[in-house]
Write a structure and sequence with these properties.
The protein contains 17 helices and 16 strands. It is an alpha+beta fold and 604 residues long. The protein has a 4-stranded antiparallel beta sheet. It has a 4-stranded antiparallel beta sheet with strand order 13-12-15-16, with no helix packed on it. It has a 3-stranded antiparallel beta sheet with strand order 1-2-7. The longest helix is centred in the first third of the chain and has 103 residues.
């Protein structure tokens, strides 16, 4: 292959190619440029020819340089492509410079312009087509406007229909929602029923499980001795009791913890375990251990025993909250009763006794139909709780009867007014009273001595009222030995009835002083001065002498309520009898209609 770059070979090849190819290549290039210029109204053919020729020239030149083709064969093509690119590029440059839309030649040669016009049939047709397209476009736009109007109205109609459809759909949704809610409620009720049945079944299973454990524990207790490899809860509980009674507190503790791992809802294992923990670790340690057990387990008995490890006030509050949440958990009532017992408190107030009695009564009420058995593994523990409950209820008596343990008032009338003595059902550290059902209370104050029960100054149990006090209600309240307020108690006070009742009580109590024969050396006289002094309680007095019928009566002056014990100056408090009179029988009819026994007085 000839090397185009060797010595003088290149110029000779180029000259040879120009001599052979230059004439026709230049002619063809000029013609193609002229044709592109003439056709310029249709498209920029000169630019297209220049671009294609330039690319072809570049490709041929690269192929020659890389010796991909023989230079002798490729040079004519290179010359042609170069000439075409140069001519067409020049034509396009002149077109752009002169802004000739119809081409440079047409602007210089009229004949060429006419030729373009003869070829303009295509342009006219194109113009007509463009005009037709324009008119069509206008028509389309008008049609589009009409269509848009129709579409807008259609959209409005569709929107209205859609709105109606949406409203219908919403109504349907509401109906479906109501239906769904109804079905949900029905399903919820059914689910609650199922859950209640499951709960009942679970309760029965737990009761049956505890019954099985209790029987196993009873059998093991009869056999005695620790189980070498315990696996069941009754075996761990049995071992715990065996170790505890033998003084092996470490193994007892381990066995109790193992039993707790079964989460058995029985009260007695945990109360015994708590006692062991309090001895070993104190109340705080027991509270910590049972707090952890309560967090892990579900047994109510564990949670209940955990509550018992708190301090006094907090313990009672938590215990009450537990009972409120679990009102049928029977062991809680026995444990609550212990909080108010004499063993726990030392000395009980009336409120303490009532709280204890109420809780024990509730606990014992579950005994029927074996209602307490399901809470105990060791039945001897249940028997102990029941015995203690019955014993305490017998000792407390009718403490729950509100009429038996209410304060009372004993009015005592004097010529100066009323002295009211308060009788309380228990020791008090303070007493107060008021007239009527509203208004402030007045403290009675204290006596100059200490109450042996409380060790504090004794509350004054009395107060005074003027003799002008009308019938009213008197309120009484007091503080018990723990400082808890009791009352108020409303007591009816009727001065007239109180005066009559007080006089009657004195007459009945001191009846031996009704009659006095020959008093003060006044022989032959019978005195009845005492009956005159307390006459406000007397309606009439009948008497007889020497055992005869009660056919005589004493003259008793009317009651003076303002000065009831003063004997009128004109009243005669005696009468004469013969020496033959050896006895006198007397019967008093009181203002309340009752009669005294016939009293007999013998003359000395």
């Amino acid at each position: 292959m000839t090397d185009i770059g060797a010595g003088g070979a290149a110029p000779s090849l180029i000259k040879a190619s120009l001599s052979r190819t230059g004439k026709w290549a230049g002619s063809v290039a000029f013609i193609s440029g002229a044709v592109g210029d003439v056709l310029n109204p249709l498209a920029p053919f000169a630019a297209y020819i220049a671009l294609v020729a330039a690319i072809a020239a570049a490709i041929i030149a690269i192929a020659i340089v890389l010796r991909l083709v023989l230079a002798t064969k490729a040079l004519p093509a290179l010359l042609f492509a170069t000439s075409a690119a140069a001519v067409a590029g020049g034509v396009y440059a002149v077109q752009q410079e002169t802004n000739s839309q119809n081409g440079v030649i047409a602007s210089l040669v009229p004949a060429i312009a006419q030729l373009q016009q003869s070829m303009g049939i295509v342009s006219e047709k194109v113009a007509k087509i463009e005009q037709t397209v324009t008119q069509t476009q206008k028509t389309v736009e008008e049609v589009k406007k009409s269509t848009d109007t129709v579409a807008q109205k259609t959209d409005q109609i569709a929107s209205a229909q859609q709105q109606q459809t949406q409203q219908g759909a919403e109504t349907q949704k509401t109906v479906e929602a109501v239906k769904k809610t109804t079905e949900t409620l029905a399903a919820g009720q059914q689910q609650q029923q199922v859950q209640a049945e499951k709960l009942q079944a679970t309760t029965e299973q737990i009761a049956a499980s505890i019954d099985t454990i209790a029987k196993g524990f009873a059998q093991l207790a009869a056999q005695g001795g620790a189980i070498a490899e315990p696996k069941r809860p009754d075996e761990f509980y049995h071992n715990a009791r065996v170790y505890e009674l033998s003084g092996d507190m470490l193994n007892a503790r381990r066995s109790y913890l193992a039993f707790a791992g079964f989460d058995v809802d029985a009260i007695d294992p945990y109360t015994r375990f708590a006692t062991l923990l309090r001895v070993q670790d104190g109340k705080a340690g027991a509270r910590e251990v049972f707090g952890q057990l309560a967090d892990k387990g579900k047994a109510l008995s564990i949670k209940l025993v955990h509550i018992l490890q708190f301090e006094d006030a907090q313990r009672i509050d938590k215990l009450n909250a537990f009972i409120t949440a679990n009102p049928d958990y029977a062991p809680a009532y026995f444990l609550k009763a212990q909080e108010f017992s004499e063993d726990r408190l030392g000395s009980q107030t009336l409120a303490d006794k009532r709280n204890e009695a109420q809780a024990l009564t509730k606990f014992v009420s579950y005994e029927g139909d074996g209602g307490l058995l399901k809470y105990f593994v060791d039945q001897t523990q249940l028997a102990d709780w029941l015995d203690r409950s019955r014993s305490r209820l017998a000792a407390l008596g009718d403490v729950l009867d509100p009429a038996r343990f209410a304060p009372s008032l004993t009015p005592m009338r004097s010529n100066q007014g009323w002295s009211m003595t308060i009788s309380l059902p228990e020791p008090a550290t303070a007493i107060s009273w008021r007239l009527g059902t509203s208004g402030p209370f007045t403290d009675t104050g204290f006596l100059a001595m200490n109450d042996q029960t409380t060790g504090k100054p004794m509350a004054n149990p009395s107060f005074e009222l003027p003799d002008s006090t009308a019938a009213t209600t008197i309120g009484i309240k007091y503080l018990d030995i723990r400082g808890r307020e009791t009352g108020p108690f409303e007591i009816r006070f009727d001065p007239d009835a109180a005066l009559q009742q007080g006089d009657k009580q004195i007459l009945d109590q001191f009846w031996t002083s009704w009659i006095a024969f020959d008093s003060g050396g006044n022989h032959g006289l019978v005195y009845f001065t005492q009956m005159l002094s307390y006459r406000c309680a007397i309606k009439e007095v009948h008497y007889s002498l020497n055992g005869a019928a009660l056919d005589k009566s004493l003259e008793i002056p009317p009651c003076d309520k303002k000065d009831p014990y003063a004997i009128p100056y004109d009243a005669k408090g005696y009468f004469k009898v013969a020496d033959s009179v050896k006895s006198m029988s007397v019967q008093v009819t009181y203002t309340d209609g009752t009669k005294s026994p016939v009293r007999e007085y013998k003359r000395q």
